[in-house]
Amino acid sequence: MASIDPNFPCSLVIDLPLPTHRLASSALQALQVDNELSPLVKREFSLTWSNDASGQSNGVAGEGQGTDDQLIILRTRYKATTNRMLRVAVNGFMESLGVVLGVMEELDVDVLEQTSPP
């Protein structure tokens, strides 16, 4: 288990499974463009593997545990100085995430094909 940073004692990890590696990578690229506005909050993104049916993440990109096609989980790690700062940052992230997912749903051909009834 990672040690707690005394300067940023409040933390949260958000794992978002997406249908394909391409969509996970696109979401990562779209979201990481915006820096955190406050120096009291730190955020980092990564893609992780999902190797089993339960959706448990079994690795982080760069650790050599799977193929790129299995990198379908967008992991966002937040650290903040206070719970309030963490909450404010995560609320902003969720708004941005909603926009990114909405655009994917409306404009991405693969998403439409996967959600269409047979």
What is the architecture at the second tier of CATH? Answer: 2-Layer Sandwich
Write out the strand line-up for the largest beta sheet, numbering strands in chain order. Answer: 1-4-2-3
Task: Write the CATH fold name.
Answer: TATA-Binding Protein
Helix coverage percent of residues?
25-40%
Describe the main β-sheet briefly.
Answer: 4 strands, antiparallel
CATH class: Alpha Beta
Rg from alpha-carbon coordinates: 16 Å
Shape: globular
Strand content: 25-35%
E-strand count: 4
Tell me the series of helices and strands, N- to C-terminal: EHEEEHH
Structural class: alpha+beta
Mean pLDDT, to the nearest integer, reads 83
Which residues form runs of ≥5 with pLDDT under 50?
52-58
Number of domains: 1
CATH superfamily: Alpha-D-phosphohexomutase, C-terminal domain
- The number of helical runs is 3
> What's the N-to-C terminus distance?
44 Å
Give the SSE map.
Layout: E1 10-17, H1 21-31, E2 41-50, E3 57-60, E4 71-80, H2 83-107, H3 109-115
Antiparallel strand pairs: 1-4, 2-3, 2-4
Helix pairs in contact: 1-2
Brief digest:
InterPro entries: CTAG/Pcc1. The protein has 118 residues and is of the alpha+beta class.
